[in-house]
Design brief:
Elements lengths: L13 H21 L20 H11 L14 E10 L5 E9 L5 E7 L3 H9 L5 E7 L2 E6 L7 E5 L4 E6 L3 H13 L6
Antiparallel strand pairs: 1-2, 2-3, 3-7, 4-5, 5-6, 6-7
């Protein structure tokens, strides 16, 4: 009498595959738990601390290095600067851009981009694709063209001669008005 051999491969089914994967999945969960790379949060995600960002130093540096006037807006109390970047807006009519982002007192994100790129190139660059103007807002003596639409964050942009100012984010329309007013009234930093 001999020992029974494994059943022929043609007789393997989905249940055999599942039972083969169970030890592998348990091993992966064990390794992830040991490495502390996963957590269980039954109430859903929670917001963590806002990253700190020195907006003053970033804009002063940009003012010295970029070929257009850079403004440093005074944001409302309770707003926290959390990010900044510089980019090259490519394309015909492109240029340099300086972006700083804030978390409003209500916990929403809003950003200000300053650029010497033309509006028709800057808006799709920031939006990640083409947008259509949906209206205008008159704030602080300047006309701001609004690019909106269903399911997208609004973009407000205004031409200040040598520079275009663009505001976007998930913040409220009141926050947009506050930042556009602050940007329009902000002094130009020394180059």
């Amino acid at each position: 009498m001999g020992v029974a051999s494994d059943k022929p491969r043609i007789l393997h089914n989905n249940r055999d595959m599942v039972w083969s994967l169970v030890p592998l999945v348990l091993f992966c969960v064990l390794i992830a738990g040991i490495a502390s790379q996963c957590t269980f949060s039954p109430g859903g995600p929670t917001s963590g601390p806002i990253p700190s960002f020195d907006v003053d130093a970033a804009l002063k540096y940009d003012a010295q290095d970029l070929p257009f006037p850079v403004r440093k807006p005074e944001t409302p109390e309770g707003w926290t600067p959390n990010s900044g970047s510089r980019s090259i807006v490519s394309g015909d009519g492109g240029g340099d851009s300086s972006t700083v982002g804030f978390i409003t007192e209500a916990g929403r994100y809003i950003q200000l981009t300053q650029s010497n790129a033309v509006e028709t190139v800057l808006v799709p660059f920031v939006a990640g694709g083409p947008r259509t103007a949906t209206g205008t807002e008159d704030v602080a003596g300047h006309s701001w063209i609004v690019y909106g639409g269903e399911g997208v964050e609004p973009i407000w942009v205004s031409d200040f001669g040598d520079v275009r100012l663009l505001v976007t984010g998930s913040a409220s329309p009141e926050a947009f008005e506050q930042l556009t007013t602050a940007a329009a009234d902000a002094p130009i930093l020394a180059a």
